[in-house]
Amino acid sequence: MSRMYGAFIQLTGRRCLVVGGGPVAERKITGLLDSEAEVTMIAPRATSSLVKMAENGTIRWEARPFQAGDTAPFFLIIAATASREVNAQVFAEGETHGRLVNVVNDPKLGNFTVPALLRRGSLTVGISTSGAAPVVAKKLREDLEAYWGPGIELFVEWVSEARRRIAAEVPEEAQRTELLRRLTNSELLQLLREGRQLEAEQLLKRIMGGRGG
Ligand SMILES: C[C@@]1(CC(=O)O)C2=NC(=C\c3[nH]c(c(CCC(=O)O)c3CC(=O)O)Cc3[nH]c(c(CC(=O)O)c3CCC(=O)O)/C=C3\N/C(=C\2)[C@@H](CCC(=O)O)[C@]3(C)CC(=O)O)/[C@H]1CCC(=O)O
Ligand SMILES: NC(=O)c1ccc[n+]([C@@H]2O[C@H](COP(=O)([O-])OP(=O)(O)OC[C@H]3O[C@@H](n4cnc5c(N)ncnc54)[C@H](O)[C@@H]3O)[C@@H](O)[C@H]2O)c1
């Protein structure tokens, strides 16, 4: 399998189609909703949680098999049935329209794959094995989650806030870069990882030298 191009896609309000309603479709739909996509599912049968999501209007459900022409209105399509033939048909049609198409059960098909995602606030870490071993992507994601804990989210928030202040208060470019480098290379992240928040706050203040208070 060739090496994939990494990208993060803005899906807010975009119409996305998932063909299939099994456990794999459910995982993909949960991910799409987490990115605020507008999700339509086409499948004769669906898991009980997908049925609930359709009932309460979280997703739109067309309870029938896939038909030619179904992909046309969608920006992104996931072929998640257990049938290679149906998934291949979904891919062929989506590809004709130049759409983004993911196929869950045939590594030779599809033009994108879904990575394992570690999400903490504005931070997203995506892990791909280029289709070689998805279970490894999952394991690494779990390891990273356990290693960084909730501290990683505060770290990103603090550096982001510091970056805003530095941009407003430090006119000299080289000095701005140097300050940000000191922050990110400091013990700050390690202290937050270990839950030593008070010490982390003191270190932050020391490095920022009173800027922005
Ligand atoms: C990362 C993750 C994202 C997500 O789906 O959200 C994801 N698979 C996950 C889990 C997982 N998948 C499978 C198992 C069972 C163990 C096993 O068999 O290995 C488990 C583990 C579990 O479920 O616990 C089976 C499996 N997966 C694919 C095939 C077809 C094939 O390879 O032929 C088969 C065989 C099916 C069969 O037996 O027929 C294919 C794909 N799976 C991908 C993504 C893409 C490549 C990602 C990469 O490059 O690493 C790709 C190519 C297409 C795609 O789906 O985008 C998610 C972890 C999320 C998380 O927890 O963080
Ligand atoms: N990519 C991944 O992450 C991953 C992980 C595990 C398994 N898989 C593979 O993904 C596939 C799906 O797994 P699953 O457990 O969700 O399967 P499943 O059999 O539970 O669900 C299949 C779904 O497809 C629907 N369906 C069947 N024919 C259809 C048609 N013509 N049009 C529309 N919908 C149709 C069914 O109604 C059902 O909702 C399997 O081939 C499995 O091996 C992929």
Automatic annotation (TrEMBL):
Question: Which reactions appear under catalytic activity for this entry?
Answer: precorrin-2 + NAD(+) = sirohydrochlorin + NADH + 2 H(+)
Task: Please indicate which superkingdom the organism of origin belongs to.
Answer: Bacteria
Q: Which residues form the Siroheme synthase central domain?
A: 120-146
The protein's annotated pathway: Porphyrin-containing compound metabolism; siroheme biosynthesis; sirohydrochlorin from precorrin-2: step 1/1
Matches recorded under Pfam families:
NAD_binding_7, Sirohm_synth_M
For the protein in the UniProt heading, the enzyme class is oxidoreductase
GO term, biological process aspect, one: siroheme biosynthetic process
Q: What is this protein called?
A: precorrin-2 dehydrogenase
Native organism: Tumebacillus algifaecis
Q: What is the lineage of its organism?
A: Bacteria, Bacillati, Bacillota, Bacilli, Bacillales
